[in-house]
Amino acid sequence: KRSDIYSLGILFYEMLFGKLPYEIKEKNDVHKFDEIYDGIVMDETKAHLILIKIIKKMISKNVEERYFSVN
Questions:
Q1: How much is the pTM?
Q2: How far is CA 22 from CA 3, 15, 47, 57, 71, in A?
Q3: What's the CA angle centered on 64, arms 42 and 52, to 5 degrees?
Q4: Integer Cα distance of 53 and 9 in angstroms
Q5: Within 10 A of 34 (CB to CB), how many other CB atoms are there?
Q6: How far apart are CA 48 and CA 64, in angstroms?
Q7: Which residues of 41-60 are buried (b: 16+ CB within 10 A; e: fewer)?
Q8: What whole-number distance in Å separates Cα of residue 55 and Cα of residue 71?
Q9: Strand, helix or coil at 61?
Q10: Is 62 helix (H, G, I), strand (E, B) or coil?
Q11: What tens digit of pLDDT does each residue of 1-45 get?
Q12: Rounded CA gap, 26 and 29, in Å?
């Protein structure tokens, strides 16, 4: 599923950079999701560019832009 691909992308990001790709400051659940989707920033200076491209596609806000399968 594409939601699984998103989760795997978040895991890869955390493995590469040692942190999540977003900061959650808001206590309200609705605003937390906005912070997650709007706050993802990739630090391209610390990882190989092809890995960044793959992760960006995996954690795209738009489900249709994510990989269809991990096969």
A1: 0.49
A2: 17, 14, 17, 16, 28
A3: 20
A4: 11
A5: 11
A6: 25
A7: ebeeeeeeeeebeebbebbb
A8: 16
A9: coil
A10: coil
A11: 788 888 888 888 888 778 777 766 666 666 666 666 666 666 656
A12: 8
Asked if 57 and 31 count as a contact pair (C-beta separation under 8 A), the reply is no
Amino acid at 12: F
The pLDDT tens digits of the residues spanning 34-52 come to 666 666 666 656 667 777 7
Q: What are the structure tokens assigned to 25, written together? A: 């400051």
**How is 9-60 classified by DSSP, letter by letter?**
HHHHHHHHHSS-SS-----SHHHHHHHHHH-----TTSS-HHHHHHHHHHT-
The one-letter code for the residue type at 30 is V
